[in-house]
Amino acid sequence: MKALIFAAGLGSRLKPLTDRTPKALIPVGGKPMLEHVILKLKASGFNEIVVNIHHEGRQIIDYLKSRNNFGIHIFISDERDCLLDTGGGIRHARKYIDGNEPFLAHNADILSNVDLKQLYRHHLENPTSLATLLVSQRESSRWLLFDEEKRLCGWQNHETGEVRSPYPDFNPFLYSGYAFSGIHVISPKIFEWMDEWSGKFSIISFYLAICARTTIRAYPPDNLQLLDIGKPETLVKAEEWLRKRD
Q1: CB of 12 closer than 8 Å to CB of 22
Q2: More confident of the two residues 16 and 21
Q3: CATH code for position 215
Q4: Domain span at residue 92?
Q5: Cβ(182)–Cβ(107) under 8 Å?
């Protein structure tokens, strides 16, 4: 199974820690964020992993080499010339993740207790889904909006009131709101939908642009625990969370 780890972010929220260190190599519980994600993916049966890089990318290449790629196949999707955001990052990594099977995409700064095997299996059991998004109803200023069949229909920013949807006269109050986790399983057919997209673009903007014509589905498991460790205040929480888990 194949996976893509987004490790190219600038880590602006973690400055000055990330001034000379890529965010993915900031330690949490004695290990870089990136290592936590790689080990979780490896334990879940993913044996081909792509890591995209940008800021201080050479450090990530050297780190992986020093760990002998953790005994699995790891490829580098190099974005050091131009940071492409999540959607552009997926498109740029196509030569490594395209094929006959879905691939999993995972932000490097996310810790969770999700069963990645079950998430992947759930996607396979719903062959009409172009992508399956791990979501939860945790506190967030921005929610993805899904209908009763868990199909993506829109997006809402609760702080600004902004609503986005491809459907005319869209009423956000008729839909269920979930926060996206930064973890999703994607069919390789997505690259056909990306033919008219290029350069830098967000995967969420892409999903919202096409969700009226294809199926982007939510996967909200029970008792999901998730931490975005890309912020200073959550680094401390992550240390405690890892201690309790171990």
Answers
A1: no
A2: 21
A3: 3.90.550.10
A4: 2-245
A5: yes
